[in-house]
Design a protein that fits this description.
274 residues, alpha+beta, 5-stranded mixed beta barrel, two-stranded antiparallel sheet, rod-shaped
Amino acid sequence: MSTISPRVSDQPRTLFRTMIMPRWIALLVLALAIAAAFAFLGKWQLERAYRAAPTQESAPTETVRPLTDTVEPGSLLRTERVGQKVSVHGEFVPGDYLVISDRLNEGESGYWVAGHLVTDEGAALAVGLGWTPTRETADAVAERLNDAQRAEASVTGRVLSAQFPELDEDAPFEFTKMAPARFVNVWHEMDDVDVYEAYVVSDAAPEGLETISSPPPEQEVEINWLNIFYAIEWVVFAGFAVFLWFRIVRDAWERDIEERELAQADGTSNEKVN
């Protein structure tokens, strides 16, 4: 019958058996805790490195502000305020409703009807009121609005920079751009009136037109490369904590082997002397 011989006490431990000794397990737990702390700091630095774009609902442009707080008449619209939701009160001028051609609405070409709003402050503002795919509908709505009585109006919409006027020699009376600089040549009541170098796309369309699609401007993601560098450093530190534990255990294992070899060599020498 075969028997399992007991482990010789002088037999050196393997590296794995050394690793699972209680004191080295305890040291591993400490190393992992330190590595976890370093990893958390790396994650925190990485989150700070990326300033994510806000959602459509939380973007700064989606908070409705008074038009006068966003842009002044005669002044250019600042880049960071392009697409800002604004509110403005005034009166639309009958006879100044225009049809703007070649206007895309969610990829489909059509026509806008634009109005001339005299704000409560007395400035002239171009307003895109609504869209339609056919010229006949746009002309009919513009004619109906031009025949209506002057009345107060409150407009909420997105403010955009005025477009550069373009003149087609083959169609000199055709409007293809939201260009107040050109509109003033046909608008009424323009004596000594300040004009906004911007226009507003209304959130609500008059009867017969569709609401103009005007999505918020894209929000860019800002990257802080210094924070990314710090995040990489913390990850390296976390890996080093585990590596340091391994080196300590390996050194202890190698030292144990060396001590056993020396002890065996001394024992052999003593036997030869005796």
